[in-house]
Amino acid sequence: MSYRVLVLDDEPLARRTLSDLLAGMDDVAQVDTVASLAEAGAWLSEATPDVLFLDVELARGTSFELLEHVDPHSEVVFLTAHTHYAHRAFAVDAVDYLLKPVTAAAVERALTRVSRRRPLGDGSPPLRPLTMEDRVRLQETKRVTLCRVADITHITGAGNYAEVHLARGRTALVKRRLRSWEAALPDAFVRIGRSTLVNLERAGEITLRDGVWHVHLEGVEAPLPVSRRCATSLQSSIGALFR
Q1: Which of 60, 63, 105, 139 is at 20 to 30 A from 35, Cα to Cα?
Q2: 175 touches 161 (CB < 8 A)
Q3: What is the mean pLDDT of the chain?
Q4: CB burial class (10 A; 0-12, 13-18, 19+) of residue 211?
Q5: Do the beta carbons of residue 207 and residue 225 sit within 8 Å?
């Protein structure tokens, strides 16, 4: 598989070095580079890369701010000289977290992880297509929860795991990537961000606050924010499901 890659780094030497490393790898078809959040946002409004290599700390903010513009199915690799961003990177389902100075071996490892994650890549057998009335088994280390698909309010992903939230307030952490759930669940389940699927049949209302749309789910106290990249597809899903 050949990937189109976007590199964001505000240091010219680091940007050029990484671009050269990527260009020399067999599974990279094209490398584009940008130097700022503004440039990256403009680029992403016109194209969708397979993989993004994002320097975390930039002159004006961090690359975490860019994620609302990134297609949820694009893989993200963070680059930084610091280790304290690792937990945050994992929380937004990054494929890897590379410490600077970046080596060719580290880049190859990241691309290997990308290939293992596409399309599913969590090591679990694929789910069959599900309906709202189907029952699923949520297997955890010390507990198995049986539930109807209709009782799932939302699912949040982190790496090879997903936290399944149920209408009765319980949650289950299972080893199955969010993308695997997305492929099997009915159309009422839609992405509202890189790491969140929501069940629109459990949505009470959708509100706009401070320029960001939020989904209010039955039984879920805090509304869930919608990324700008997902807002349009969410509106289309609502139109198709609720005529």
Answers
A1: 105
A2: yes
A3: 89
A4: exposed
A5: no
